[in-house]
Each structure stands twice: as structure tokens, then as C-alpha cells.
Amino acid sequence: MKIAVLAGDGIGPEIMVEALKVLDALRLPEVTLWQGDVGGIGYHRHGHPLPPETLEMTKAADAVLFGAVGDPTCDTLERHLRPEQAILGLRQALGLFANLRPAQMFAGLEDLSALRPEISRTIDLLIVRELNGDVYFGEKAIRTLDDGRRQGFDFMSYAEDEVRRIAHVAFRAAQGRQKKLTSVDKANVLETSQLWRDVVIEVAKDYPDVQLSHMYVDNAAMQLVRDPGQFDVVVTGNLFGDILSDQASMCVGSIGLLASASLGETQTQFGTKGLYEPIHGSAPDIAGQGKANPMAMILSAAMMLRHSFGREAEAVRIETAVAKALADGIKGADLGGTAGTSQVGDAVVARL
Ligand code: IPM
Ligand code: MG
């Protein structure tokens, strides 16, 4: 099992140590770890946020474990040299078009949610975000119009095959859960969304057992805080998924708890090749202080075992250990507690 470990910037290296500690404690046979530079550290050491040697490593690996990228000292660089381009470049180069972002309430954290406990208690949803298209990867620029005014633009588009493949992922995910799928778009205004909706309806014919509904993204943002329990699987485009998944994280209590899997079509001998990362960023303000919560990173490693290595039992062991640690009051600063990064990692290992 060849794993490319890309810790990245800010708190990335600290939380990665804890995820590797947990993996190590499982004593899995035949694990090979490769370490690569990515993000701001990639730029500072190799002149590029996604150095060629790092990209090659991820191509040869069965899975990528990714920490976080983002480095304020790079904010003034040209866009293609900024740390964020590392993750966007990897998603594109590895064809990782399906981003799974589960959000579920952990017992004992109800009071930390931005929502009232009786509402937050009901959260158990999966956001399936398209990751290779949309306004993220369309033509973009800041140009000067004939009259001298500057204009920024980003081209939004989805081709039908792009919608179809993410829709299939979402319908299959729904079949494995509560069989409810909500497709989120802005079809009342955007043609891109109209095509999205039309294609999702076509794909639905293959999944008569799944109950499909459609929701405009503004309404979805409202429903997510009004009654999040109504959602099982949510499928949406790249930009809407980016926004709604951050919102979902605060409904759960902390962005430090949410993991993600980015999957494509490549199959390895064990499962689907993928990239696994917390949905939070590099948090430069607390980097190096040993107080970042590593749980999202640890839960990302669990998702890796599930999707890329077919090790469901070990994935569940990690997830159960994290839930137990939380129930036992092991909480980092993001959850109003005092547990440091390595203390949280140790607590999870002790509960494996
Ligand atoms: C995420 C992040 C990225 C995104 C950034 C870092 C480019 O916000 O994974 O949600 O917008 O996709
Ligand atoms: Mg985001």
C-alpha cells in the first residue's frame, strides 16, 4: 500500500504526525510511506507549489494523504505559484472529480454546534462535491475593457458527462445510506445549473430506489441551518460544494472534525485511488504551537483505509476511537478544550 504523504504548510505537518501515529498503531502489513513537499513549502524549496517530483510520487502511489496548504508569505505571488494551486493541480492531474465530505454530529458535542442541540443532534449527511469542473477550472482573468475599466471574470461550465459521473457517485452513495439525494443548483438563474438538473434527472432513472429532490443553493444554505436532519446525501457543483461544506462543518461544531475523500476512476489492486485531506486549511495563526486538532486528519486517514485500501474494519476502528475520545472529553482548543495536538493523537491511539 503505497501512500504519498504530503503534509504541506501551517498545521499540516503537526496533524500529519498524529494521523501517521494512528496508522502505525494499526500495524497494517505492507505500508510504504513516501514524503513529498507541497504548497508554500514546495514553493520555497523547489520553486513550485506542486513540484514535479511530488506530482510523480502521487501518480505512482495508491493513495495520497494530504495535510493542508496555505502560506501568507505566498499571498502576493502570481496565482499559479500560490500554495492553493497544489491541491487544485493534484485534483486535476489525478482526475479526482468526486469529493466526499461527510458531516455527522458526535455525541457530546451538541453544545458546541452553532445550532441549538436539538437541531444539531440530527446532522448525519454526506456532501458529494464535484471537484474537477465549474468556475474553478474555467477560463479566468482580470482584463481591461475598452473604456479602461478592469473586469474580472471566471467562466462557469459543466459538460453533461461531468455531471453524469458525479451524479452516479452520489446516487450510489445514497443507496448505501438513507436513499435520499438532494441535488443543489441555481437552475432558476444559471444555464450551467439547468443542464446539471436535467442530467441528474436522467441519471435518476437508473436508481429508482433513491428519492431525488432538487434545491436551489440559497435555500440549501438556509435549510442546512434550519433543519439539517432532512439531508442524507447532497450532490452539488464545485463552488457550491466548497461553500456548503464549510457551513456544514460549523453546524457540527468545528471545522477541525471534518474529513474528506477525493476519488477518481483509477482502481488500484486494493480499491479506488484517492486523496484524503481535512476540509480545514493550514491555520497559520496557530501553526507550530501544538494546539491544532488532528481529528479531521486522522478521520481522513480512516477514509483512505476505507476507499483506497478496502479496510473497512480498520476505518471503523479509527472512527470509533475518535468518537470515544470526544465522548471522554478529549477536546482541542477548537472545541473549547485544552488537549494539545499530540495528546489528541495519543488519546485516539489508546482507544483503538
Ligand atoms: C477546499 C478548499 C480549497 C477549495 C482551496 C484551498 C483551493 O477551500 O478544499 O474546500 O476551494 O476547494
Ligand atoms: Mg473550502
User: What fold name goes in the CATH topology slot of the largest domain?
Assistant: Isopropylmalate Dehydrogenase
Number of strands: 12
Strand order of the largest sheet: 2-1-3-12-11-4-5-10-8-9
CATH architectural group of the largest domain: 3-Layer(aba) Sandwich
Major beta sheet summary = 10 strands, mixed
Task: Note the main attributes of this structure.
single chain, 352 residues, alpha/beta, Isopropylmalate Dehydrogenase, ten-stranded mixed β-sheet, two-stranded antiparallel ribbon, 12 helices, globular, binds 3-isopropylmalic acid, binds magnesium ion
Short overview:
The protein has 352 residues and is an alpha/beta fold.
Tell me about this structure.
By secondary structure, the protein is of the alpha/beta class. The chain has helices spanning 12-25, 40-46, 52-60, 84-93, 117-120, 160-175, 191-204, 217-226, 238-252, 295-307, 312-327, 341-350; strands spanning 2-8, 32-35, 63-68, 98-104, 124-130, 140-144, 150-154, 180-185, 211-216, 233-236, 259-267, 272-278. It is built from twelve helices and twelve strands. It has a ten-stranded mixed β-sheet with strand order 2-1-3-12-11-4-5-10-8-9, with helices on both faces. The protein has a two-stranded antiparallel sheet with strand order 6-7. The chain starts with a strand and ends with a helix. The mean pLDDT is 96.
